[in-house]
Amino acid sequence: MRITDIDAMLRIFTDPLVIASFGIAPFERHQMKQWVQRNLSHQNELGHGLSSVILKCNNLLIGDCGLEHTVVEREMVTELGYDFLSDYWHKGLATEAAKAVRDYAFIELRLPSLVSLIRIGNDRSKGVAERVGMTLISELTRYGNGYWEYGIERT
Asked: 3-153 sits in which CATH class?
């Protein structure tokens, strides 16, 4: 991901179907800029983060996928996250990207485990998590919202 991806990422975070899955208001440009800058800081500090997903056929940025460190139940975990424009749902692209990131996390980074935090009811993201081998660990509340915590361990 690059700072120049702000406007393309804003298309994702103003997509009504994407925003509905988060249960939040669409991002404003200044919020998207902060979000991208936070991710870039994460990449600089840890060597990995969310990457832009670009279609090869037309160089269109259609999503992001990658790793972020976050706290769940007072424990630092590595989250496998993904966000895609709704026009590109149901094409296997999120699953393909998530599998590649999972493999990178386990093979190259040698991380012991990954989680995905998914708003309860977001069956599309739940399906991606399950297709990459994750299983439901728990249900939890974050910021007043219910989440499924999916996880997978390196074998």
From this structure: alpha beta
Contacts of 89 (CB under 8 A, 6+ apart): 17, 124
**Would you list the domain boundaries of the chain?**
3-153
127 alpha-carbon distance from chain centroid:
14
Q: What is the distance between the alpha carbons of residues 35 and 42, in angstroms, rounded to a whole number? A: 11
Q: For 27-74, how does the pLDDT look when each residue is reduced to its tens digit (9 = 90+)?
A: 999 999 999 999 999 999 998 999 999 999 999 999 999 999 999 988
* DSSP secondary structure of 33-87: HHHHHHHHHHHHHHS--EEEEE-TTT--EEEEEEEEEEEETTEEEEEEEEEE-GG
Poorest-confidence range of 18-22, 35-39, 84-88, 117-121?
18-22
Tell if the pTM clears 0.85, that is, is over it: yes
